[in-house]
Write a structure and sequence with these properties.
The complex is a heterodimer of chains A (604) and B (86). Chain A is mainly α and 604 residues long. Helices cover 71% and strands 1% of the residues of chain A. Chain A contains 26 helices and 3 strands. The relative contact order of chain A is 0.17. Classes of the chains: A mainly alpha (604), B mainly alpha (86). The interface between A and B is large, with 56 and 49 residues.
């Protein structure tokens, strides 16, 4: 069927794949009509998609260092864009983002602006230059640009702290979805999720992860957009929701003022199951101070530019030029999902709130609501709750509670879509969480195997041995992450945001100044990384233990403090110590132009 | 001034313009979030709401492609573009 070079055939390969996936959805829909149970459909969706990823992972196996670390540097711009989008959009983006917008409105949408605006920094400040450098990993750049094992080691430390914080949340998300779809206990589902993740990355490293991430993007974007368009059309809200929901947004604002935001007493709230929330904030009106919004957006933007699992995707493009364009494509593919999340939140909220709609439950009698099928299902799953606080027998806005995940997971069912859509959404969430987890585990394992083991501990190791070490580390890190995830310490989103703050505290300025300030030297970079990470972490611990914080910097934005310390200490220490030698200065000059050889060789 | 220094000067100029546009749509306008919230935006959404849902996000996408094209032109002008690839 496919002739010639795999790379030349990519559009056709993924075209066939997409067609096959759509056919699979149709077969499942027919199956549902013919009486397939919802459980069987859920299992089929998750098992079928994970099996495909595993096959791609197996076909991408390699024994070459540059294929393992940077996919042979031949990933075309558009496909790298898709892979980056999947790498980027985590289980949290997929499952929790619409819920966050639903409950917190404007204050939360700083994350949308931050998680997209960061790509402007990636494209203009870093990605093309790091691609020209020719490094395998982010610490590879730090270690070569500044010189010395200590700077390389510190970069590995920052990378590991940030990525590990992030990856436990992703493994947690794969476990949650696997446990719901396959109906097994969470403690085991976490390891099912982990094995699926490792199947994609173990044999092929970056090459395997690249081609599975493209496949995962296709699944997740179909799974996100199809329900949004379908619900919008079914409600008669408009056939293209993104341009047509103004009336619905205005209607929610009307209903909000009609119902009012009644504050519940602490005693009443104590009866609500943990993790569920009510609608207490305006949907579209500005409900946060400028600084609260801007500081969160800024922290996420600088964090984006410092997270190694994103940056390393741009090491896989064929050229510097392609790296730049690829950032644009990445953001375009991310935009498709992010711009849909607020629309889903709007549709979900209106369909529950509006007494004029058949699906609306506010204003109905509590007993009627408790008798609805979908309410019972989601109440049992601990994602929905109603309680008659004021004893009038009618459900008020402040008496309805929902989990953040329910916006994505339950809205199709509430709107009366067939179950096949819920199965599709589960497969999409699984794809989103798996692709991000793969990118992160690989980033950590590559840094440890390439920078710590090969560059610092055993520089004479042969390729075969290096790749064995890389794979062993991959498995070890995966299991460590899964073990921590199984303990269920924090919610999905809290730890995701911390990862951005850790990364920006330690890495943002050492990376940016490495390209843009020739005078930056080893001592400065060491001070910037060590003091930046330490002060950011210190601030987080202080605030977590009841510290009041300052300048409105919270535990979600502590990276602003960490990176400021990093910048100041890096500049001061650099200026107090001798300038980098002539060879290093020449290296920076070469990094700044796209033409010519890369600094590090093809195999290094 | 050497060719390389001129190239870098232009590159830095482009960076400043890019970052200025980025700053306006990621930070600048949100200083006036409450004021803009009273205004109507595209497709009938409140203006601040539109920027957070679509506006700023879409502008970032366009900005990156615009930046990439400008940078390619600068590289070509000084003969620093890569050969024989895409």
């Amino acid at each position: 069927m496919i002739k010639g070079n795999f790379i030349d055939n990519l559009p056709r390969v993924y075209g066939i794949y997409t067609g096959g996936f759509l056919a699979f959805i149709i077969i499942m829909a027919i199956g549902e009509q013919m009486g397939m149970t919802s459980k069987a459909i859920g299992i089929c969706f998750v098992a079928f998609t994970v099996a495909i990823y595993a096959i791609i992972g197996y076909l991408s196996r390699t024994a070459q260092a540059d294929a393992y670390y940077v996919a042979g540097r031949q990933v075309p711009t558009v496909f790298n864009g898709m892979a980056t989008a999947a790498d980027w959009m985590s289980g949290a983006s997929f499952v929790a983002m619409a819920g966050g917008i639903y409950f917190k409105g404007y204050g939360y949408m700083a994350l949308l602006v931050g998680w997209t605006g960061g790509y402007v920094l990636v494209a203009s400040l870093l990605a093309p230059y790091l691609r020209k450098f020719g490094c395998y990993t982010v610490p590879d750049f730090i270690g070569t640009r500044y010189g010395g094992n200590l700077s390389r080691f510190l970069a590995v430390v920052v990378l590991t702290v940030a990525s590990f914080t992030y990856v436990t949340a992703q493994i947690n998300a794969t476990g949650t979805i696997a446990s719901v779809a396959l109906d097994i206990p969470f403690q085991y589902a976490v390891y099912v999720g982990l094995i699926s993740i490792l199947l994609c990355s173990m044999l092929g490293g970056m090459r395997g992860v690249t081609w599975t991430q493209v496949a995962q993007y296709i699944v997740l974007i179909i799974a996100y957009l199809l329900p949004v368009f379908w619900i919008s059309n079914k409600m008669g809200a408009g056939f293209f929701p993104h341009f047509m929901l103004a009336d619905e947004v205005a209607r929610i604002a009307d209903l909000e003022s009609q119902f009012g935001f009644v504050k519940n007493s602490a005693a009443d709230l104590a009866t609500v199951p943990k993790g569920l929330a009510g609608i207490t904030k305006a949907h579209s009106a500005v409900n946060a101070t400028p600084w609260a919004f801007i500081s969160l957006a800024l922290a996420m933007m600088m964090g984006t530019a410092s997270l190694p699992h994103v940056m390393m995707r741009y090491f896989t493009t064929p050229s510097v030029k392609a790296a730049r364009k690829s950032v644009g494509w990445s953001l375009f593919f991310i935009f498709l999902l992010y711009s849909s999340a607020p629309m889903l939140a709007t549709l979900s909220k209106l369909s529950l709130m509006d007494p004029n709609l058949a699906t609306g439950i506010i204003g109905k009698s509590i007993a009627d609501v408790q008798a609805i099928d979908w309410y019972q299902n989601w109440n049992q799953a601990n994602l929905m709750f109603v309680s008659d606080f004021n004893g009038n027998g009618t459900l008020e806005l402040n008496e309805f509670f929902m989990g953040g995940k329910a916006v994505v997971l339950a809205t199709p069912e509430i709107a009366g879509l067939p179950y096949v859509i819920s199965g599709l959404v589960a497969a999409g969430g699984m794809a989103a969480a798996m692709s991000t987890a793969d990118g992160l585990i690989l980033a950590i394992a590559n840094a440890l195997s390439h920078d710590l083991y090969y560059k610092i501990i055993d520089p004479k190791a042969e390729t075969a041995k290096r790749l064995v070490v890389a794979r062993v580390l991959l498995v070890v890190i995966g299991f460590a992450g899964a073990t921590i995830a199984a303990m269920e310490i924090q919610g999905i989103l809290g730890s995701v945001i911390w990862a951005f703050d850790f990364a920006m505290s330690g890495l943002f300025f050492p990376l940016v100044l490495g390209v843009w300030w020739k005078r930056a030297n080893k001592e400065g970079a060491i001070a910037g990384m060590a003091l930046g990470l330490a002060s950011g972490m210190g601030y987080l611990i202080w605030v977590r233990n009841g510290g009041s914080g300052f300048l409105g910097i919270t535990q979600l934005t502590f990276g602003i403090f960490g990176s400021a310390v990093s910048l100041v200490s890096m500049v001061v220490v650099s200026l107090m110590t001798p300038a980098p030698d002539a060879a290093t200065q020449k290296m920076v000059d070469e990094v700044r132009v796209p033409s010519g050889k890369s600094i590090l060789g093809k195999q290094h | 001034m050497s060719k390389q220094a001129q190239h870098w000067e232009k590159t830095r100029g482009l960076l400043m313009v890019t970052l200025a546009i980025w700053f306006v749509f990621s930070i600048g306008i949100f200083l006036f979030g409450a004021e803009m919230g009273e205004m109507g935006g595209p497709f009938g959404y409140p203006l601040t709401y539109w920027f957070t849902c679509q506006g700023s996000l879409g502008i970032f996408v366009i900005l990156i492609f615009w930046f990439a094209n400008r940078q390619e032109k600068i590289d070509e002008e000084f003969g620093f573009s890569e050969k024989g690839d895409d």
